[in-house]
Amino acid sequence: MTPRLQRRVFLVLVLLTLGLAAFFGAIVAQPGLIGGAASDPSGGHIGEHFRDPEHRVHDLGFGLLIGTTVIGALAQVRAPAINVAGQLMAATPILALMLAALVTDRRVLSIPWVAIGAPTLVATLLHPDLFRSVGATRPSRRMIALVAIAAVPLLAFAAGNIALQRSGSSHHADLGHYGYMAALDLTVIGVGLVSSLRLAGWRLTRLVTGSLAALFGIVSLVFPDVEGSLGTAWALAAIAWGAGFVTVAEIVGREDAARSS
Amino acid sequence: MSADPEETTSTPRWAYAAAIAVVVLAVVFIVMHLAGEGAVGH
Question: A168 FRET partner, CA 20 to 30 A, in A3, A47, A142, A160?
Fold first, then answer.
């Protein structure tokens, strides 16, 4: 495949990812649209998303996963060459969801993330500048150390969610929600590691890493009694870690800029 | 004679093979799901 053709194929895949994300977003916003087509004006289970308080943390967690992919894909529309880190970031939630599905059960598999995930993974594999950039990684020890600190509780939360998904017969487990939350825990670690590599476009990924942790913490604080909440102490820790990660990454970035000027 | 960098891509062949595998797996899953053999919940 010539580079020109590959760039075009890559752009089509990115636009397909964004189009599917918008499509599924529209269905969630207006479940009657697809419900009407399927002879169920209520939209069935789709109508519960973001409306049923019982699933609020899980729904927002899933939104953070797909939101991470969408932000990474959006960065590619403008300039793939300077957003290699963004494409890896886009693929991270999909890989985390695949891993969660592999270690739990098929209830974690669902059409929205599989449909959005397939073009995302293919776009990552066909990114015009990814493999050229692999040799340009500059891992930041300070950022990796911060990710390692966060990884301890995040892996514990992920293990708990995986156990609940595997053994659970609750409504949440039937809908794969524990698998999604395990994927969110793994995604914070994964996107943090992607940021730490300091590939082209890592400014966006470091902001998303900190925001993911902080937003997960804020959601947990706002809905402390809803299934999936981290609880007050861990929610505050997540917010503090998110702010700390962005701050340290910003310092590393400024040192980079001062060195190169 | 070395290849012109503008005419070659840095993407290895295994990446193309993996991309095809991803597409095939996704299509199989979606078809199975729509046929009622897929995920239970969603």
Answer: A47
